Amino acid sequence: MVESRGQALQRRRAVYRRRRAWAAVIAVVLLALLVFGLYAGLKTWGLLPSGQDAEESEAAELSGSNSDDDLASPAGSSAAAAEPEPEPTPEPEPEPERASDPSWDPDSIHVLVNRQNPFEPVDYAPTDLVVPDVPHYGPEAAMSLRQEPAAALEELIATGRQEGMALGLVSGYRSFDYQFQIYWARHAEVGTEATDLYMSRPGYSEHQTGLAADVISIENPDCMLGECFADTPEGQWVAENAHRFGFIIRYLEDMEHITGYPYEPWHLRYVGVETATEVFELGLTLEKYWEQPAAPDYDDAEPASP
Ligand SMILES: [Zn+2]
Fold first, then answer.
1. How many A from CA of 108 to the centre of ligand 1?
2. Whole domain around residue 47: which residue ranges?
3. What residues contact 300, with CB distance under 8 A and at least 6 apart?
4. Does residue 120 fall inside a structural domain?
5. Does residue 295 form part of some domain?
6. CATH code assigned at 261
7. Is the model's pLDDT at 37 over the cut of 80?
8. Which of the two residues, 202 and 91, has the higher pLDDT score?
9. What is the pLDDT at residue 20?
10. How many angstroms does the Cα of residue 207 sit away from the middle of ligand 1?
11. Which end of the chain is least crowded, N or C, by CB within 10 Å?
12. What is the CA(85)–ligand 1 centre distance, in A?
């Protein structure tokens, strides 16, 4: 069917009228929203006095500076009831406290010594060294420990003995001079890289603290200062029990990128029972436990020449 010109014109006008009507409705709705939004915003920002605000300011005027005024209390409390205090933001849970923090005092049982933390002074020597009453194998010059770890090692080895373990000591305190001698003697044979692998440079050895002890399985001398110590009954017993006496396995397996040393299941470090127990239970290196930077390397590629 063909529309006449007049009909088409009428139809278009009707369409325009409907559109105008809708536009008007939409404009009214938008205006209403705008007014409401503006009002809410002003009120939120405190630019419009609300009924409650007025009440509060009256109460404040009434109470003046005397907060014990009888008039002030009811007004104050009604205002408080009408507008409750905002919920206090909950305190963040406090971090659980560590048993200890690292120390740089060489006399502390929590001193941190690694390839990034040499002794200060470099030739530090403890003053309370004693030779523990335990089976020991090796040069007498390297057989002492500080009093506290010496007593702890005696207890550890005696307890182990009661449980069928034959443990002995092969290295305790090493003086700066002694470390110097053994480091450079080995260095002359194999060079820096191979020497650094297992042996600390003088001034960087945990043995200089008097808190470190290398232990052996007496029945398995082939595993002395070797990874296979971990597979001996003594090695397994030490791994499970050393913390009860305040010692940790200081150089854990696959942690060389943190400690700077390959796995040394025989090297015990005394840190006290509380810290040792936490470190053991968390399975952490001492660096991680104390939240200290990893110490894989020395700052200097070559040791200071003798
Ligand atoms: Zn050692």
1. 18
2. 5-70
3. none
4. no
5. no
6. 3.30.1380.10
7. no
8. 202
9. 62
10. 6
11. N
12. 61
Q: What separation in Å is there between the alpha carbon of 141 and the centre of ligand 1?
A: 15
The answer on pLDDT for 116 being more than 60 is: yes
- Select the more confidently predicted residue: 25 or 127: 127
Say if residue 231's pLDDT is above 60.
Answer: yes
Asked if the structure places residue 75 within a domain, the reply is no
Report how far ligand 1's centroid is from the alpha carbon of 162 (Å).
Answer: 25
248, two tokens:
């940790």
Number of domains making up the chain: 2
**Dist CA 17 CA 107 (whole Å):** 95
Q: Are 153 and 132 in contact (CB under 8 A)?
A: yes
Residue 103: what are its φ and ψ, rounded to 5°?
A: -130, 155
**How many angstroms is it from 305 CA to the middle of ligand 1?**
23
pLDDT exceeds cutoff 80 at 12:
no
Q: Which helix (H) or strand (E) holds 130?
A: strand 129-130
Buried b (16+ CB within 10 A) or exposed e, 43-72: eeeeeeeeeeeeebeebeeebeeeeeeeeb
Gap from CA of 200 to ligand 1 centroid (Å)? 9
> Which DSSP letter does residue 292 get?
-
Q: 66 C-alpha to center of ligand 1: Å?
A: 73
The mean pLDDT value for 17-42 works out to 62
